[in-house]
Amino acid sequence: MTSSSSNKDRPDTRNATVADYSRTADVPQNDTMTQLPVLTTRIEIQWAGQRLDKALSALFPEHTRARLQDWLQAGRITVDGKGELKASYKLKGGEEIILRPQPPEHMQSLMPEPVEFEVVHEDDQCLVINKPAGLVVHPAAGHWSGTLMNGLLHRYPELVDVPRAGIVHRLDKDTTGLMVVARQPDTQQNLIREMAKRRIRRIYLALVWGRMTQRRTVEAAIGRDPRNRQKMAVVGHGKPAVTHFHPLALGQLADLPVTLLACKLETGRTHQIRVHALHAGFGLVGDPAYRQRGARPVPLDRQALHACYLAFCADGLVQEWDTRTIAPLPEDLSMLLTHAGIAVPDSEALLNLPDLWPMQSELQTAHLADEDEDDFEEDEDGVEIIYVRDDE
Known about the structure:
Number of helices: 8
Distance between the termini: 101 Å
Structural class: alpha+beta
Order of helices and strands: EEHHEEHEEHEHEEEEEEHEEHHE
Mean pLDDT: 82
Low-confidence stretches: 1-34, 361-366, 374-392
Radius of gyration: 28 Å
């Protein structure tokens, strides 16, 4: 005759948490992502012979089974000092369990982390930083940590009280240069309004394939590329976007002509300069996503784009800019220009870039909608609209 165990022989999981666990802040120094309390408990004898995963679910009911399983596999749960155990591990009773919980990914984005970036301007209202290549600005899928936001929260803890740690606008991961960061919520709102009214002047330097000998303005709506949702493109139902290009110098790379451009934005759409330049027939050198047809390999593993000039008024009360900053070209772009036979612009040249364009009135850009530059909707596949205007 076979026998089966009755319910009374099994642990009462409803009351399993009577084995009180303690909380401690004793977190390993190198575990920078763990800032939740470490949980410690000792397994009662009633759990002898039971699976570890079942005991964990009962002992730590505030965490989901899936998350406990992930932590178990990651070695964040130890049994008598043993880590990375299988969920089916059989308990003996009396073991000490230590759980070092890791915040969910979306919470990790709020964790301060030491991240390298240069501060070129700092006052009570705002910061201007010079973002290096490879640094992601906002946490997102695949980049929940190690971003500029994490670094800002580490260096300026008070920014936890400002939305998005004070970030007003963004640069692509591999684009270098200047960004303004607000230190107070009201300053952030002022700067966002100034951005929407086109009263923040941003100028970029870009090295492109081809010979551009006259100034050009590209006005073309930008939205999601219907053939590749990871990219942006000129589409009929995109958002209005205007970019001004001014050639500064001609050179040659890999036996092909190149042009150094100064680029001024009227809007701030995702990948705007890269998309507009390519659509006008002058793709950025080194751009892995928006590749110019016939482009050749160069000693640069990113797009040749640098935000070199930024001018604004943080309080929005005066018409003239009270803050002007410049950022010299990073070493990799400077070397590339030298290789192309183009003189690297010095600080004086960067400060004089705004003189290439007269100040435009608000009426000239009134048709551009006041929309957040980081906000884009799903675009329909529409008729392409673009015109390129050559200025004599």
